[in-house]
Write a structure and sequence with these properties.
The chain has 91 residues and is of the alpha+beta class. It is 13% helix and 30% strand. It is built from one helix and six strands. The longest helix is centred in the last third of the chain and has 12 residues.
Length: 91
């Protein structure tokens, strides 16, 4: 797996006194990123980090040190299929 993901478990801010809730935090600082083939040449670029089991991190190329959205791989695959099928019109 390229760019191994470091996972740190943290107690959720929504956890009660029982502490039965968890959040997972992905450290994507060293992850390799690639620009989407759908990105335009005018800065409207989405970057994707490949090689993470079960997840697809996505970020705005204009803010590489900013937040990344992390999608379940199945949801990302469904989204890409919908884009390719033209389900979002002229996007």
């Amino acid at each position: 797996m390229r760019g191994a993901t470091v996972v740190r478990w943290q107690k959720s801010s929504y956890s009660g006194q029982g502490g039965e809730c968890l959040e997972v935090s992905f450290d994507l600082c060293a992850a390799p990123w690639r620009k989407s083939t759908y990105s335009n040449g005018q800065g409207g670029c989405v970057e994707v980090s490949d090689g993470h089991v079960g997840i697809v991190p996505v970020r705005d190329s204009k803010d590489p040190s900013g937040p990344a959205l992390v999608f379940p791989a199945s949801a990302w695959s469904a989204f890409i299929s919908a884009v390719q099928a033209g389900e979002f019109g002229g996007v």
